[in-house]
Design goal:
Elements lengths: L1 E6 L1 H8 L8 E10 L5 E11 L8 H26 L10 H18 L6 H10 L1 H7 L6
Helix pairs in contact: 4-5
């Protein structure tokens, strides 16, 4: 369950006094996760600054934007950093290449992922038997 609070008045203060250019809207989002038995599993509060004109969006639109942002973060960036430590690498001349390779690896894993299998299970299966993954793409062991 998520609740959102939108603040226009303090956004003006942040924009004018704190020199955050374009700040039109401040938001607080409280998220609660519950277990199947109804007990609370976790509570998280996040704060956002937005340049979106408050007259053009509803709180429901804002929550949708925030969910979509975190879906990308959780489904892509978190995995790349967790599995390949992408944020820790300093590659002077090959940084973009490393990012492209990790993105390609993640795409390939999703391509060969079996229904009902987690991406981690797929990655572990490929790690222990790379020939299976190669066979999916038409490569045969010699």
């Amino acid at each position: 369950m998520q609740k959102i609070w939108c603040d226009i008045e303090d956004a003006e203060y942040v924009r004018e006094r704190l020199n955050v250019a374009g700040c039109q809207l401040l938001m607080r989002v409280d998220s609660e996760l519950f277990r199947p038995d109804g007990t609370k599993k976790s509570h998280e509060t996040r704060f956002f600054i937005s340049s979106i004109d408050p007259g053009t969006v509803t709180p429901e639109n804002l929550l949708s934007f925030i969910r979509k942002h975190w879906q990308v973060e959780n489904c892509l960036h978190w995995m790349k950093d967790r599995w390949w430590d992408e944020d820790k690498h300093y590659l002077k001349h090959a940084g973009n290449l490393f990012i492209e390779l990790t993105s390609a690896a993640l795409s390939l894993l999703r391509f060969i992922q079996k229904p009902g299998e987690s991406l981690l299970e797929t990655a572990e299966e490929v790690h222990f038997d790379p020939q299976k993954a190669l066979q999916v793409f038409g490569f045969q062991a010699e």
